[in-house]
């Protein structure tokens, strides 16, 4: 276990339970979950990664519309991806996540109140329908949704093929898709590693893609896959893609500048 891992664990264990309990009680009394989400889940997630020495640069914030909920689709190479990306998304965001995480005391209750959507891997058709319905309801209520269309972490950091479920969800909801390229986490915490190393991470929000502009689900899926591939470093692109892809030049915003976006 690395020192960075220990520092992240201390932040989560020291701040997580009391913030969760207070946030849950406040939400039950007032019926409002914004404090629980912004000051609880998101702020502690950001503090934890900062304590671990993770330095994040964000590009493409101007591609996120201010008046529409979006489906954010990101490549997935590390367990660090969700706690890095979620606090960077303006407004409130739901996420498709393993249902086992919902069984963690306090945290599970907070995530359910935050309208996070549990997914059963290898579950029943009825369970999948419930998850799709819950995600659609979250979007209709004005929340963004974060999904990792690869379905699991990449074993080597390279972008892999996408599963169709999240694209069915985007088509059904009519929400625009924001492709997200994240790089650096595959080095700081690779798949099957319990240790975290300090370092730099780049997150890029790419121009939105409207599902209605594509004649088929496969065409939509290919458009999102190609956009993310082009924005990733060469060594994280799929091996069967050409090396000469044109990355999109976008201004960057320091992670620290975004604290106002999640302030209570």
Explain how this protein is built.
With 264 residues, the chain is of the alpha/beta class. Helix 1 packs antiparallel against helix 2 and helix 1 packs across helix 4. Mean pLDDT is 86; it is low at 243-264. The chain has helices at residues 3-30, 34-51, 81-85, 107-113, 125-140, 165-173, 185-188, 217-231; strands at residues 54-59, 71-74, 93-98, 117-119, 144-147, 177-183, 199-205, 252-254. Helix 4 (107-113) links the parallel strand 3 and strand 4 (117-119). The chain has an eight-stranded mixed β-sheet. It has a single domain, classed as Glycerol-3-phosphate (1)-acyltransferase. It is 39% helix and 15% strand. The radius of gyration is 18 Å and the shape is globular.
Can you summarize this structure?
The chain is of the alpha/beta class and 264 residues long. It is 39% helix and 15% strand.
Largest pleated sheet: 8 strands, mixed
Name of the level-1 CATH class: Alpha Beta
Secondary structural class? alpha/beta
What fold name goes in the CATH topology slot? Glycerol-3-phosphate (1)-acyltransferase
Report strand order across the widest sheet: 4-3-5-2-6-7-1-8
How many distinct folded domains?
1
Number of strands: 8
Intertermini distance:
34 Å
pLDDT < 50 stretches? 243-264
Helix percentage range: 25-40%
Q: Approximately what portion of the residues adopt beta-strand conformation?
A: 15-25%
The SSE string, one letter per element, is: HHEEHEHEHEHEHEHE
Number of helices: 8
Mean pLDDT equals 86
């Amino acid at each position: 276990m690395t020192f960075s891992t220990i520092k992240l664990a201390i932040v989560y264990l020291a701040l997580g339970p009391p913030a969760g309990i207070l946030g849950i009680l406040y939400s039950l009394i007032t019926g409002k979950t914004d404090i629980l989400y912004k000051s609880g889940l998101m702020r502690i997630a950001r503090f934890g990664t900062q304590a671990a020495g993770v330095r994040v640069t964000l590009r493409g914030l101007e591609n996120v519309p201010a008046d529409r909920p979006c489906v954010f689709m990101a490549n997935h190479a590390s367990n660090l991806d969700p706690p890095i990306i979620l606090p960077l998304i303006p407004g409130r965001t739901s996420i498709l996540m393993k249902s086992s995480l919902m069984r963690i005391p306090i945290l599970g209750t907070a995530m359910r109140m935050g309208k996070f959507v549990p997914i059963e891997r290898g579950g029943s058709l009825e369970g999948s329908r419930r998850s799709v319905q819950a995600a659609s309801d979250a979007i209709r209520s004005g929340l963004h949704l974060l999904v990792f269309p690869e379905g699991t972490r990449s074993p080597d950091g390279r972008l892999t093929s996408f599963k169709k479920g999240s694209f069915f969800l985007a088509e059904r909801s009519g929400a625009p898709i924001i492709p997200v390229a994240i790089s650096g986490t595959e080095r700081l915490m690779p798949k099957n590693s319990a240790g975290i190393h300090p370092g730099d991470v780049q997150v890029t929000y790419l121009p939105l893609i409207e599902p209605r502009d594509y004649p088929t689900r496969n065409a939509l899926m290919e458009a999102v896959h190609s956009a993310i591939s082009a924005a990733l470093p060469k060594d994280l692109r799929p091996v069967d893609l050409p090396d000469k892809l044109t990355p999109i030049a976008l201004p960057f915003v320091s992670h620290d500048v975004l604290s106002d976006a999640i302030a209570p």
